[in-house]
Design brief:
Protein name: Antitoxin VapB
Helix content: 10-25%
Biased composition (Basic and acidic residues): 69-80
Organism: Sphingobium fontiphilum
Distance between the termini: 47 Å
Radius of gyration: 21 Å
Largest sheet: 2 strands, antiparallel
Mean pLDDT: 78
Number of helices: 1
Region (Disordered): 69-88
């Protein structure tokens, strides 16, 4: 994104709210998906744009991503003798 916006979090009842600039193209009542990242950052998008977000990630991988496969993943033996529908 070429433009950066600043916003302030404020209290609204027992919740926190974030006032977003109108220029972002959001409208009252839009359903938003918010993804928290391990580094403390967040991403958000309109719920109906989920496929566009997913397809946008496709180009984010480097050309050699997983070119050598996933590698060996060690897995222990499983006990299949338990009762059906009951977790081990």
């Amino acid at each position: 994104m070429s433009e950066e916006f600043k916003a302030r979090v404020f209290k609204s009842g027992n919740s926190l709210a974030l006032r977003l600039p109108k220029t972002l193209g959001m409208a009252e009542g839009d359903d938003i998906v918010i993804a928290a990242h391990a580094d403390g950052s967040f991403s958000f998008w309109k719920e109906d744009a989920g496929l566009d977000v997913l397809m946008g990630l496709y180009g984010a991988f480097s050309p050699g991503f997983m070119s050598e496969g996933r590698g060996d993943i060690e897995q222990g033996e499983r006990d299949w003798s338990g009762a059906p529908g009951k977790a081990a």
